[in-house]
Design brief:
heterodimer; A: mainly alpha; about 85% helix; B: mainly alpha; 7 helices; about 0% strand
């Protein structure tokens, strides 16, 4: 049996090829699957965003609390230091006053002795 | 139909509209590339999820179409490569009885051409599908595949020649059997 070329020319073959490669409708389940997956991904993304926001908030709260602790410790140390310095100053002042009182007393005694010596010599 | 799509800037990008308009194109491209309806559906699903994630970067209807074609071909090629790596080659040899892959619609010859198309090398298959399913020019195919124009023209020419030879050989055997 003699084989006859079904495609007289390349155009006919291309026409047949184009016809056989017409677009096919997508299965109806595709849309449902895509929409469901999309919904899940969105929900997951929302959940991740919320978790990330909460984590960020917690980090900031921890930082603020740590800063407050450090500030209060530093403040207490500074206040303590000032109190010690003030106390030392008060003590030094009292010592100076005591020294002045002693000196004053010594001068008064000397003055009295000199006056008595002057009376005796006269 | 897709060419008349007018961008509505208030709604752009509208994922659902893009899906409705292009689901057939994406599914058909994946189906012709892989020859497997289940795998084609999975690929189409992945492609549309990818579109959803990148929809802010889509600038126009034409950009969406080009993007979908490129990503679908690329995903299909990746899926076929993964299958080959796993040792599952889905391209079963065409049954000598000519009854293995009956077309779902259209002429028996059309179904046979479609089945034989699946036996072509991937690059030639992609070029032929884009040329005859999507009606793209070689320049548009080159832009879609990111390949040089000369390469695309050569793939089209060699693919057509090979496909034609395969179809003729099948028909000869069929006629002899009858």
């Amino acid at each position: 049996m003699q084989f006859e070329d079904p495609f007289e020319n390349i155009d006919e073959f291309e026409r047949e090829l184009r016809k056989s490669l017409e677009r096919q409708p997508a299965p109806p389940s595709l849309k449902r699957k895509v929409m469901e997956q999309r919904w899940h991904e969105r929900a997951q993304a929302r959940s991740n965003r919320t978790t990330a926001r909460q984590r960020t908030r917690m980090i900031w709260l921890e930082r603020i609390a740590a800063s407050l602790v450090v500030a209060s410790v530093a403040g207490s140390a500074l206040a303590g230091h000032y109190a010690i310095e003030r106390r030392k100053g008060e003590e030094a002042k009292q010592q100076v006053f005591t020294a002045l009182r002693i000196t004053n007393h010594a001068f008064q005694v000397m003055n009295r002795q000199l006056q008595e010596r002057d009376k005796n010599s006269q | 139909m897709t060419e008349s799509w007018q961008p509505d800037f208030e709604k752009l990008p509208d994922f659902e509209r893009l899906f409705d308009e292009h689901q057939s194109m994406v599914f058909s491209l994946a189906l012709r590339m892989t020859g497997d309806r289940g795998l084609a559906e999975e690929i189409a699903q992945d492609v549309f999820m990818e579109l959803d994630r990148h929809i802010a970067k889509i600038e126009s209807a034409q950009h969406a179409i080009c993007w979908l074609r490129r990503v679908t071909i690329s995903r299909s090629t990746d899926a076929l490569r993964r299958r080959r790596v796993r040792g599952i080659d889905q391209w079963v040899a065409i049954d000598e009885s000519h009854g293995a892959r009956e077309p779902e619609s259209g002429s028996p010859l059309g179904g046979r051409i479609e089945a034989l198309l699946a036996t072509l090398p991937e690059a030639q298959r992609a070029a032929i599908i884009l040329r005859y399913q999507e009606d793209l020019t070689p320049e548009e195919i080159a832009a879609t595949l990111g390949a040089p124009l000369a390469t695309v023209k050569s793939q089209l020419q060699r693919g057509l020649k090979l496909l034609r030879a395969k179809v003729e050989s099948q028909l000869k055997e069929y006629i002899r059997a009858v």
